[in-house]
Amino acid sequence: MSEKRSAIEACAADQWHTLPSGLTVIVRPMPGYSCTHAILATRFGSIDRYFRVGEKEIRLPAGVAHFLEHKMFEDEDGDAFAKFARTGANANAFTSFDRTCYLFTATEQVDESLDVLLGMIAHPYFTPETIAKEQGIIGQEIKMYDDSPDWRLMTGLFEGMYHSHPIRSDIAGTCESIAEITPEMLYDCCRAFYAPGNLVLAVAGNVTMDQVLAACGRSGLAEPRPAETPRRLWDEEPLTLAQPEQTLTMAVSKPCFGIGFKEEPLPSGDLRTEALYDLVCSCICGGMSPLYRRLYDAGLVNPDFGGAVLRVDGCCCFLFTGESEHPDQVRDLLLAEIERVRAAGVDEEIFTLCKNEKYGQLIENLENVEDSASQMADFALAGQTVAQQIGMLAGLTAADANRALETIFRPERMAFIKILPDGSACAEDADQMEVEE
């Protein structure tokens, strides 16, 4: 088994290079593939709103990272999307809680597309006029999110669990918060978080490391440069809940719900515990768990019901979401299953099945250019390789899961939110559906 694992880890051994500027470059050459996928990622997301660079402390309104993502596509020469269109590349970008990523997929003119991608970062350009225009565009996007039950559900869970952590705020911010954004604010963020030492460039497909390094050289991102690492600052966040329970009404056809457990934050880069928590979550309510089968067979949840772990700096929580006509009952059954597994211990067969599933996903991603580049970038942002992640996951045991269950999923740290159809009563029907034990 160890020989097989070593062979798989060797297959996942990507080419790494750290440039004198501090930029991390990871390439996975995949000869014979028709396309190439590139991701340029920065450790700057919506939660990065209070930080220090040198002697300067900076506080940002909500939504700056997402706003900056939009603005990085513009420069004095025009729009980067138009440049990508000329190379035939399909480009996009996204902002999450702890990162911003710019990406493209191309089947030809890869060098030219890399020049466009890296040029966006090398030459930011902001004016009051272009910012005012973008404020109107993103304002419409924010209103769209406000009408999304799934988004309201997640935002409500974070508001229920956290008192002050910036994860409470929508990634896009509010119309009021983005109105405070200025060119100086965006340039401060670029200097702090778009410095090469804070960036990861991951490329997979029909490409070589020499090609990618040459593009970095043409963009000016390879040369040494002085840089100060931004120090993130946090207001104190207790383990208590801000609002344990909420009920909202929206234009939904069926009630939906969210259950969150607030946990101690994990140290930065602790991917082992994050992966272990993910496995524990799968053992309790994943598709192979007894609880999932009982709930689904009884019609209490839809097929999308499931759980996940969210870990960013200063924040760690479990999130369970789904649709149900009886959300209170699902919550009670989930709590009962957690206590049963805590007392009896994790079923070793289910744990092994769940671990093999995660293991298989990592391996499967190596065969797809988009998944491979995304996987490399994700782990590199935390200072780890894909091969290291595969080896670490293989070493997790059911005993590790049982030790984790001694401290996680505490009922006093559980937040609960329901979204009911407009006009529905807030209370559930008294009649509860029966579920076979």
TrEMBL record:
**What PANTHER family does its record include?**
METALLOPROTEASE (PTHR11851), ZINC-DEPENDENT PROTEASE (PTHR11851:SF134)
Pfam families from the xrefs? Peptidase_M16, Peptidase_M16_C
Protein's name in the database: Peptidase
| GO MF annotation, one | metal ion binding
Question: The Peptidase M16 C-terminal domain covers which part of the protein?
Answer: 181-356
Q: Which NCBIfam families match?
A: YfmH_fam (NF047421)
Tell me which species this is from: Faecalibacterium gallinarum
InterPro entries in alphabetical order? Metalloenz_LuxS/M16, MPP/UQCRC_Complex, Pept_M16_N, Peptidase_M16_C
Report domain Peptidase M16 N-terminal positions.
62-174
